[in-house]
Amino acid sequence: MFIPLSFKDVINRFVDNLVDHYGDTLRALSESVLSGVLLPLESALRALPPWLVLLAMGLLGWHATRRLRQGVLLAGLLYLIGCLGLWDPLMQTFALMLVAMTLTVLLGVPAGILMARYEGVRRVLQPLLDIMQTLPTFVYLIPVLMLFGLGKVPAIFATVVYALPPLIRLTDLGIRQVDHDVAEAAWSFGPTRLQLLLGVQLPLALPSIMAGINQSIMMALSMVVIASMIGARGLGEDVLIGIQTLDFGRGLQAGAAIVILAIVLDRIGQGYGGRRVPPCR
């Protein structure tokens, strides 16, 4: 009744061929990211005194929201994670988030700019972004496991792929929503396309871009527990151990710490994203 149809063999041959030809390169890339970026950053964060981290996050929260009470509250929430005995896993998760979000911004903002500039790029990326946003999260682990194996680096790459779509879409949307009259007025002064982009379009699109970064941070945090299944340590590992050992208290405690971290980062992101760009004179 049904016509046999399967593409798994094609995919498997493609991945096997990729590993055979580029396996050494991929392993070198993984090792360079791990030993050159992630581990030094993680060691630096874990070596910092907690009071200094709390002070820095409190100041960042105050700078983002322009409310001293909000900065104190955010620092207090992070202090609560330390009181739960999860400060060290928090720093591990924070290091992974910093690396993943740096890569996400470096890839997502230029991709969103290209989508806004070129209709052909938009037609190609639009269906890819639809697929990336509808695939189950566990599916992201399959290709990174095949190419990079277990560890923190594949967890970073899986997180980046999962967190990219909202940033690309909102960067594209922000640039497209820049007032055409403003762009035309700026264009009349004779700037290059790059000058127009950097001096007019990106500043006016910044609230939308910041909203995209905020959304990407939330999606990256949702991958923390899943990424722990392939070797990423941190708060997600405690949740996973709690599930495996039926230690519900440990799992819920680590889950609460992830929620607190999400609240802190969300408030900071909303604070920067909600700022209005001063009108052009």
TrEMBL record:
Segments forming domain ABC transmembrane type-1: 90-269
Annotated compartments: Cell membrane
GO biological process: choline transport; glycine betaine transport
Coiled-coil annotated spans: none
Main location per the UniProt record: membrane
One GO CC term, this protein: ATP-binding cassette (ABC) transporter complex
InterPro entries: MetI-like, MetI-like_sf
A GO MF label: carnitine transmembrane transporter activity
SUPFAM superfamilies linked to this entry: MetI-like
Membrane disposition: Multi-pass membrane protein
Keyword Repressor recorded: no
Gene3D superfamilies according to UniProt: MetI-like
Pfam families to which the protein is assigned, alphabetical: BPD_transp_1
Keyword Lipid biosynthesis: no
Family: Belongs to the binding-protein-dependent transport system permease family.
Protein name: Proline/glycine betaine ABC transporter permease
Organism: Microvirgula aerodenitrificans
